Amino acid sequence: MTAETASVLTARALLLDMDGTLVNSDAVVERCWRVWAERHGLDFDEVIKVVHGRQGYASMAVLLPERSMEENYAENREMLAAETADMEGVVPVRGAAAFLASLEGLPHALVTSADVPLSTGRMAAAGLPLPAVRVTAENVGASKPDPEGFLKGAAELGFDPADCVVFEDSGAGIAAGLAAGMRVVGVGPRAAEFGPTVQVDDLTQVRVSVDGDGALRLTFG
């Protein structure tokens, strides 16, 4: 791979988170988790710091460490159903449509903590096409910040982790990408504090081109 600078990365494949990266679903997430926090007598401001990027059961395990995983899995199913039924306010992140259009025919995958119904529903609500290759909650045994999802995405596309660049917004997701041995583009203000390789305000600041050897060149700014 060619030398890189802070304003340019090269890769062979891109692995894309969904919520906060391609789709802004904050309104739904906050509504559903506020109800959950009130049910359990927890401070919503502390709850919302934990939930971004993780599967629901993993967030619950952090927030209610004394509770059984069986209860977490059961409430996670309820949470997924509630989120899937609520698409009000789900919109694309700025630049997401053009960014995905620029990736048509290039190696990329969706790697999300959402399950198939939720990811399908939110991408549709935001008017965005689903990548052909998708790693969802059903495909992994461990939630972000575990790197399993990103490693599976790289394997599915047929590339080494070091040749992949992750796009993420959350602390858990950025940690997962870095743990997978990948470079990470942090998307949005939430990402900046978690040490991504590059940080952008939104996807209007990313341009994708293809080098002569087929490498993807990402230019930022």
Looking at this protein, list some descriptive labels.
221 residues; alpha/beta; six-stranded parallel sheet; 19% strand; disordered N terminus
Q: Can you describe this structure?
A:
With 221 residues, the chain is an alpha/beta fold. The protein has helices at residues 26-39, 44-51, 56-63, 69-84, 96-102, 116-125, 148-157, 171-179; strands at residues 8-11, 13-16, 23-24, 91-92, 108-111, 133-135, 164-168, 183-187, 198-200, 206-210, 216-220. Strand 5 (108-111), helix 6 and strand 6 form a beta-alpha-beta unit. The longest helix has 16 residues, at 69-84. The chain is globular.
Strand order of the largest sheet: 6-5-2-7-8-9
Mean pLDDT, to the nearest integer, reads: 94
Annotation field: number of helices: 8
Protein structure class: alpha/beta
Proportion of strand residues: 15-25%
Major sheet characteristics:
6 strands, parallel
Helix percentage range: 25-40%
Q: In terms of topology, how is this protein built?
A:
Blueprint: E1 8-11, E2 13-16, E3 23-24, H1 26-39, H2 44-51, H3 56-63, H4 69-84, E4 91-92, H5 96-102, E5 108-111, H6 116-125, E6 133-135, H7 148-157, E7 164-168, H8 171-179, E8 183-187, E9 198-200, E10 206-210, E11 216-220
Parallel strand pairs: 2-5, 2-7, 5-6, 7-8, 8-9
Antiparallel strand pairs: 1-11, 3-4, 10-11
Helix pairs in contact: 1-2, 3-4, 4-6
